[in-house]
What we know:
By secondary structure, chain A is α/β, with parallel strands linked by helices. Chain A has helices at residues 12-21, 33-41, 61-69, 104-109, 111-116, 128-137, 149-155, 203-212, 246-256, and strands at 2-6, 26-30, 47-54, 58-59, 73-81, 85-88, 99-102, 121-124, 143-147, 158-162, 171-178, 189-198, 218-225, 232-240, 262-269.
Amino acid sequence: MRIAFQGESGAFSEAALFEHFGSETESVACPSFRDVFLAVETRNCDFGIIPIENSLAGSIHQNYDHLIESQLNIVGEHFLRVRHCLLAKPGVRLQEIQKVISHPQALAQCEHYLRSLKGVTVEPFYDTAGSVKAVSEMESRDVAAIASKRAAEVYGLHILQEGIEDNQANFTRFLVLSIDSGSDPGEDAKTSIVFTLANQPGSLFKAMSVFALRDIDLTKIESRPLVGKPWEYLFYIDFLGSTTNLTITRALDHLREYSINLRVLGSYPRHRL
Amino acid sequence: MRIAFQGESGAFSEAALFEHFGSETESVACPSFRDVFLAVETRNCDFGIIPIENSLAGSIHQNYDHLIESQLNIVGEHFLRVRHCLLAKPGVRLQEIQKVISHPQALAQCEHYLRSLKGVTVEPFYDTAGSVKAVSEMESRDVAAIASKRAAEVYGLHILQEGIEDNQANFTRFLVLSIDSGSDPGEDAKTSIVFTLANQPGSLFKAMSVFALRDIDLTKIESRPLVGKPWEYLFYIDFLGSTTNLTITRALDHLREYSINLRVLGSYPRHRL
């Protein structure tokens, strides 16, 4: 099996891929999210995996846009706990470190820890896995990178400290994409939909009533204003249950009475962290 | 007036600052979002301005966290249209460009345009304004950066092409923060709140009824799972109207009957793009 992910080898997306599919899988690195979709659409890869939301950074609207534009189905989800590690060349001790490089978001997420390292300067880098690669290729031994444990293995670095993020509740949710709709997701399933509503007072309340009246539990709701169409909103909703269930299909039929466009992105087994 | 923003001079946050407060204002660059909050809390600055959501990249949960932790009030909002420009050294022509550098998100947002430039390589950089600074300090003349028009002025570069983003509907919403609550936001106002609900089927429906029953129009709703508390959710809601209005205060009192924690982040004049 070949699975497409965005980023360099050792990226958090690749870690999610191996956690979800097992370490025997072949991971295919893609430069951009769009390339992940293309790899699956052209059947170059069996599945793709993309981040859709992070507990600190929020939803990635761009990937919702790609989902809406493509005909791919969501066939799975995966929550990855983001654990940052401080990595250096083999043999280097923590006291020797003078500079730490990583993606600005990773640096920000380890702010308290970095402040505790007296006299250490911090330098932003375009990518977490890329910063590890850079350290591995450097002459000097006093620079450390912040990235995943896996990135240390990929580039032969040594872990100085693990779990250095300030907020332990840092996780990213990934979606698994396929050109075919998945097999029956079973009893403990989730469904993701997107739809548009006219911006009238109470229109969202009506839309939500189709779930509340049928005791369907929502796990995510998010509005996104459609720019250029100032009175319209796009809504992302995830709920428990799959489209193989009659109550769910009735709720969706009911929702079509109020919504302008409704697209079911997929029903898939729920992943519990 | 001194206003704090995150990033380097020429960043999109600074552009929003000048659009909102006028070009006579003194802008104060801060390394992190947390430093923006600190600058306002310690009265080193009169106001702070922070991005809260982007139409392509989504909400910035981290800044909601800072808002919840701090006692600062939202006293204004500002929508900034994000227009990317291709920038090079003075006198350089488009045909001479061999390499383009910028933040990966800016490169991704100009993907179609960049592909139209035959034979040009692309290299990620940690920051848009930083990439402009780098080009201005380079010996070679065949490198261009992608950033705001303002960054070109700050670092003395020349605009090769303006508005090169693939999606014209690219905007960022900023919030203006103050240690004092703002003056009366007037008739055309918005209010931002955060609250927690127990994850029971229908609990969000009840919470929304307090607005629907009073014909209060929502402009944003977003759920965010609380990690470590698997059955609880944090909700962000923005609605039209201010807490100086009796209908609004009654709706909020009503919402307190269902919600676990409710915090009013501020009422402020609505900004229309």
